[in-house]
Design goal:
about 25% strand; 9 helices; about 350 residues; about 30% helix; alpha/beta
Length: about 350
């Protein structure tokens, strides 16, 4: 997930200077902090939500304020914030409070336990970055989700991915399978940075803001990953480019958020095929602000598009669908990997 920090003082000042308020806004919360949090959340949402022009904002705001009318503490405001997400239809946004997150997941498509028994079990257990040689000339790299929380973590994660790719001796590979089935998100720049040698310098994707009809491109150039005018990651130890390596990307229902942004970065890359199942449907980008050290607010503000301008408002569909058949313990019996290897060999023999 891509997030942008906002200075909370700017929002608070803007709210304090707002001259007109509705009758619903006159409902007094019994705690100044709770009142300020709700005001800040509503103001931020009104000006930034991806869905703000698709709803009757006055009805949304009145309903949210009414729900919070008896709130005494900041925690009491959380149900009204969850209602806000529901009324917007925002299933990607969430609020964090004391290391717990709260949101609305009404649009989530259920994962079939019969078809995805192995996947459901694996996503609940420990899994890590995993490079493997499947057979001579063909590599496999499982890229899981990540959670950078300290300065330097993005560079560290990217370096770990690069090191794992180096272990496969990619210059000797005929094809590579990148597995993003166990990647529900984290920091997209760490993942794209870790896989930077697979991308030719160019635009890889964009965050599209439908209301303002603008976009913010991301991509690779000069051994760095860029996000608009910002530098998101710098590769300090450049490696040999792998632009022409044939690649299969595995996706599924737990490929979400930044995992999906990483998938989108491969869209339009030559010699690349996507195998598996529809992704999880978190192809929006969150904007955020930190209210206090304990409270953060995240809101969907844009939708993602690939380098060719194709927008993904719902999810990402594979080129070849393979339902179930996952086997993370014995990769040679994994149906998606079997299909991937078959395609890579056919591509090489053409």
């Amino acid at each position: 997930m891509k997030t942008l920090s906002k200075l909370i003082c700017i929002l608070i000042l803007a709210i304090a200077l707002t001259p007109g308020i509705s009758a619903a806004q006159n409902i007094n919360l019994k705690n100044d902090s709770a009142h300020l949090l709700l005001d800040t959340v509503l103001s931020f949402t009104k000006h930034n939500s991806l869905y703000r022009n698709k709803v009757d904002w006055k009805k949304v705001e009145d309903s949210v304020r009414l729900t919070a009318a008896n709130a005494v503490t900041v925690k009491d405001v959380i149900p009204s914030v969850k209602l806000l997400y529901k009324l917007l239809g925002d299933h990607h946004g969430f609020i964090t409070y004391n290391n717990k997150s709260y949101g609305w997941r009404g649009n989530d498509k259920p994962v079939d336990p019969a078809t995805h028994q192995v996947l459901l079990k694996k996503i609940k257990t420990e899994y890590t970055l995993m490079p493997r040689i499947l057979e001579k000339g063909f590599g496999y790299l499982l890229v899981p989700d990540n959670n950078p929380t300290h300065p330097g973590d993005v560079n560290k994660i990217a370096r770990q991915i690069q090191d794992s790719l180096i272990k496969l001796e990619p210059q000797k590979l005929k094809g590579l399978i990148i597995d993003l089935r166990l990647n529900p998100g984290g920091d997209m720049w760490a993942m794209i940075g870790g896989l930077i040698t697979l991308f030719e310098p160019d635009k890889l994707g964009a965050f599209v803001f439908p209301v303002s009809n603008t976009e913010e491109a991301w991509g690779v150039k000069n051994n760095m990953v860029y996000d608009g005018i910002d530098t998101a990651y710098i590769q300090k130890q450049p490696a040999k480019s792998l632009y022409n390596l044939k690649v299969v990307v595995l996706i599924g229902p737990y490929t979400r958020s930044s995992g999906e942004a990483t998938v989108i970065s491969f869209k339009g890359r030559k010699n690349t095929l996507f195998i598996g199942e529809n992704s999880g449907g978190y192809t929006t980008s969150n904007n955020s602000f930190q209210f206090t050290n304990e409270i953060g607010f995240f809101l969907a503000t844009s939708v993602e598009a690939d380098r060719n301008g194709h927008v993904y408002p719902d999810n990402i569909q594979p080129d070849l669908e393979v339902l179930g058949g996952d086997n993370f313990d014995d990769l040679k019996k994994d149906e998606k990997i079997i299909t991937g290897l078959k395609w890579l060999k056919e591509k090489i023999n053409k």
